[in-house]
């Protein structure tokens, strides 16, 4: 059985324009069931979600159009390309377990590390206040492109409030039969994969396999790293094999059971 520090895949972040977010229900109609999101505590962004049966979710996030352009540029996602996966997050059963991950980084052969937990949150449309802490990757010299390494989202209020898969199971049922995320592949610029390998070894502390919130053992639940243009790709797990187009040009494989 995985130990308490085995990463749990939490969510995938997809940046869209605010206009696209307002019309996202039409884009995913007939493919996915859309769940409401809310506005983030910083007042810069808002989101909508797709909850998957394995407990992982997809987050469509958008910056409000009327915010200060400089505030957007200074945000870690403010300069990323819209209509793409820009980041992804792990979580743990308890925020206290993150110290073991940080200890592994101190012993690892890598310049990368993670910040200490930074408080965050948002308010749901029904008024429920969600609180969490995030830990983002960093290095002494230069910026780590979002998505090259996952960030961590550690709940300070019950995860079931943030991701109501068990409370509202109907939101996890999708017309295309997608059941969860089978694998994640990360692409970094040619020649940098070896630099990131030590960081991934420290994240996992062993084989690069993650858990999912539901505890399901289906799919490979693996992460791979290779050279290429910066990007994050997914393989979904579903009732039958196929493909799904999340956004125009953003197409992913569905691995049949």
From TrEMBL:
Q: What is the lineage of its organism?
A: Eukaryota, Fungi, Dikarya, Ascomycota, Pezizomycotina
What region holds the Glyoxalase-like domain?
Answer: 9-193
The UniProt entry's coiled-coil ranges are: none
User: What protein does this entry describe?
Assistant: Glyoxalase-like domain-containing protein
């Amino acid at each position: 059985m995985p130990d308490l520090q085995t990463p749990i895949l939490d969510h995938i972040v997809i940046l869209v324009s605010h206009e696209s977010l307002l019309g996202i229900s039409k884009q995913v109609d007939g493919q996915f069931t859309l769940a409401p999101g809310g506005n983030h505590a910083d007042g810069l962004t808002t989101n909508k979600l797709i909850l998957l049966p394995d407990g992982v979710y997809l987050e469509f996030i958008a910056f409000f159009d009327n915010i200060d352009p400089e505030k957007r540029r200074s945000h870690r996602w403010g300069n990323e390309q819209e209509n793409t996966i820009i980041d992804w997050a792990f979580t743990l059963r308890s925020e206290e377990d993150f110290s073991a991950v940080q200890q592994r980084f101190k012993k690892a052969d890598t310049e990368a590390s993670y910040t200490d937990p930074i408080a965050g949150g948002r308010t749901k449309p029904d008024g429920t206040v969600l609180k969490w802490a995030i830990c983002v990757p960093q290095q002494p010299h230069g910026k780590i492109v979002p998505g090259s390494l996952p960030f961590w989202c550690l709940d300070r209020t019950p995860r079931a409030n943030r991701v109501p898969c068990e409370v509202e199971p109907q939101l996890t049922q999708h017309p295309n039969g997608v059941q969860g995320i089978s694998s994640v592949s990360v692409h970094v610029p040619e020649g940098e994969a070896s630099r990131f390998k030590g960081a991934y070894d420290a994240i996992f502390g062993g084989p690069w396999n993650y858990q999912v919130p539901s505890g399901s053992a289906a799919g490979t639940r693996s992460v791979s790293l290779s050279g290429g243009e910066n990007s994050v790709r997914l393989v979904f797990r579903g009732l039958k094999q196929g493909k799904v187009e999340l956004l125009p040009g953003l197409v992913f494989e569905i691995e049949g059971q």
